[in-house]
Amino acid sequence: MTSPTTNPANSGYPHTVAWFDISTPDAPRARRFYQKLFGWPVAELDETYALVGADDGRPTGGIGQAGPGSPYTGIVVYFRVADVDVALAEAEELGGSRLLEPRNLPGTDRMALFTDPDGNPVGLLGA
Fold it and tell me: Per-residue pLDDT tens for 53-93?
């Protein structure tokens, strides 16, 4: 087993939170709730997903409509890694279970989703 300091998927990254995603059966209600609670600016991409962000206008997370094919309902935190595929394989070696296969995001990083040994969904974001 590799350690966080020797794992090539982790080199050069502090493993900080890179993104959060809220998947809910009522996305419009959730957008209104969090916008009023935290004052987040909301940029609706379509009726199923919206970006939320900080005061500088950069998105820091999203709120999406959960449906029958959604891999989870609730809040998922995505952690920055150097290589999504390597980090996902290591998560599986450590007892995690693959929930969402790695996929390319338009014009940006790759993402994947797994559950930890306790069943909590965790996201990976990186190259």
Answer: 866 778 899 999 999 988 888 999 999 999 999 999 999 99
Is 113 within 8 Å of 124 (Cβ atoms)? yes
- Show the DSSP H helices in the chain as ranges: 27-38, 84-93
The values of phi and psi at residue 88, to 5°, are -65, -40
Q: Which residues contact 4 (CB under 8 A, 6 or more apart)?
A: 10, 15
Beta strand residue intervals within the chain, DSSP E:
17-24, 42-46, 49-53, 59-65, 74-81, 97-104, 110-115, 121-126
What distance in Å separates the CA atoms of residue 79 and residue 126, rounded to the nearest whole number?
8
First CA to last CA across the chain, in angstroms?
Answer: 22
Q: Give the percent of the chain with pLDDT over 70.
A: 87
Coil, helix or strand at residue 127: coil
Residue 43: phi and psi, rounded to 5, are -120, 105
Beta bridge partners of 8: none
* pTM of the model as a whole: 0.80
